[in-house]
What does this fold into?
Amino acid sequence: MHLDWARSLRDQCAGADVPFFFKQWGGRTPKANGRQLDGRTWDQYPTEVAGVAR
It folds into this structure.
């Protein structure tokens, strides 16, 4: 995955007030690169998922 693509998606979500969840970097061993994007773990969720309040 390209870093600029992930950043663009994050920025688009922020601009549209949409929660952003970054699961992990891709590749053959995804966990090897971790979950951080620009030094932060992104675990944002909507307040409701499919009509079920969290």
